Backbone:
């Protein structure tokens, strides 16, 4: 009996062991099948070879990634602009050769430094922090380093974390701008003074000739000198104006501007020119036109340029009208003429500096024969955009043109003066 019990126990243990071995084998088989599935090979495949193949492919991918990184680094070193990569701790993790050169650092010394250590300027650090919060930033900064270089800096967050910073040296450009400003100031004095004197002399001679019995060709010659000297004065003034407008933001003395007053001043300034051309200037602005937030002097200059352009390309006996109306928070000023019109393909180009639609327009068709520099319309565009407005033209050949300017209506409580 005891022997039977022992044999039964041995059989139970054997069965349990068999069941355990079967369970372990099943689990192992499941794991192997899962691994084969993840490797993308059949369950019956040689897993050792499959794993070796995956490892080889991974090593190849790593090599390609290192090669691509080295290639991009070599490309970045060819750039004249400095390139930095900054992590979220504000530590530099990458810097190209130009970055070291522009910041006066030896090669390879910038990585692991902070932004403050590299630039020595808290303003740059604030720009990087702004970019790290997904707000791309750009600025021109004069660094507190030997020579005080001026850099233009651009920063934006990387889609994979960290921030990219690109910067370039603007010191030479700023020096050239200063030289140009000095040249323009000298040009203004050296050209305007003699031209003003010529105009005064011709006006005096015209008055004297009106009382004398002078031949007609002498009178015509004096009048031509007056016209051409006026053209030169206009050209010098426009060149200087545009140069200053393109140097940076226009300084505006802001107030609630009355466009009726602006139009009256502009028309008065061009009455003589329009009369010589045989063209009438008419203001059709309503008395209740909303005021705009703007600089009256600059807005008068804008309107003078548009009126001058309209008169210049109108036929003798024609009429140039100024109209206006409020529309969706803006005032639309329109200057319409019945002149020669503009080719459709030229209408987007006429606001570019020195552009003229054709030689007929350049010579002018008004009675004075005064042409243009091609700068009046670009100046008008700069002024309109500085006021937060826009400018455009609608024209038909042989029927005339209408130039329109949209300016924002002044808001409540904005009557005080200011500068922008």
Residues:
């Amino acid at each position: 009996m005891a022997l039977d019990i022992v044999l039964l126990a041995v059989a139970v243990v054997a069965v349990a062991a068999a069941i355990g071995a079967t369970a372990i084998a099943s689990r192992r088989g499941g794991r192997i099948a899962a691994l084969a599935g993840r490797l993308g090979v059949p369950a019956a495949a040689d897993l050792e070879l499959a794993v070796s193949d995956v490892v080889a492919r991974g090593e190849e991918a790593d090599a390609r990634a290192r090669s691509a990184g080295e290639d991009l680094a070599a490309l970045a070193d060819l750039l004249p602009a400095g390139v930095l990569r900054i992590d979220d701790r504000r530590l530099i993790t990458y810097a190209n050769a130009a970055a070291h050169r522009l910041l006066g650092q030896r090669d390879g010394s910038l990585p692991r430094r902070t932004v403050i250590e590299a630039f020595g300027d808290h303003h740059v650090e604030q720009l990087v922090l702004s970019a790290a919060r997904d707000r791309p930033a750009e600025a021109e900064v004069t660094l507190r380093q030997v020579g005080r270089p001026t850099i233009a800096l651009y920063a934006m967050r990387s889609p994979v974390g960290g921030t990219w910073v690109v910067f370039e040296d603007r010191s030479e450009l700023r020096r050239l701008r200063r030289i140009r400003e000095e040249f323009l100031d000298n040009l203004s004095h050296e050209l305007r003074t003699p031209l003003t004197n010529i105009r005064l002399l011709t006006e005096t001679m015209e008055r004297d000739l009106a009382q004398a019995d002078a031949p007609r060709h002498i009178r015509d010659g004096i009048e031509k000198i007056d016209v051409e000297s006026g053209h030169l004065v206009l050209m010098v003034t426009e060149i200087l104006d545009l140069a200053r407008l393109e140097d940076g933001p226009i300084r505006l003395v802001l107030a609630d501007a009355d466009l009726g007053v602006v139009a009256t001043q502009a028309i008065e300034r061009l009455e003589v020119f329009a009369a010589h051309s045989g063209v009438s200037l008419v203001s059709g602005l309503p008395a209740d036109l909303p005021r705009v937030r703007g600089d009256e002097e600059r807005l008068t200059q804008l309107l003078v340029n548009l009126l001058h352009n309209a008169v210049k390309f109108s036929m003798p006996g024609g009429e140039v009208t100024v109209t206006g109306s409020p529309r969706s928070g803006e005032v639309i000023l329109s200057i319409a003429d019945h002149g020669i019109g503009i080719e459709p393909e030229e209408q987007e180009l006429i606001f570019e500096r020195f552009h003229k639609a054709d030689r007929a327009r350049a010579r002018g068709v008004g009675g004075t024969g005064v042409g243009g520099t091609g700068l009046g319309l670009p100046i008008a565009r700069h002024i309109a955009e500085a006021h937060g407005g826009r400018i455009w033209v609608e024209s038909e050949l042989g029927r005339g043109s209408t130039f329109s300017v949209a300016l924002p209506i002044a808001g409540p409580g904005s009557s005080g003066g200011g500068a922008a």
Observations:
- The first strand starts at residue 82 and ends at 86.
- Confidence is low (pLDDT under 50) at residues 6-10, 15-19, 358-371, 413-417.
- The two ends are 113 Å apart (CA to CA).
- The chain is about 50% helix and 20% strand.
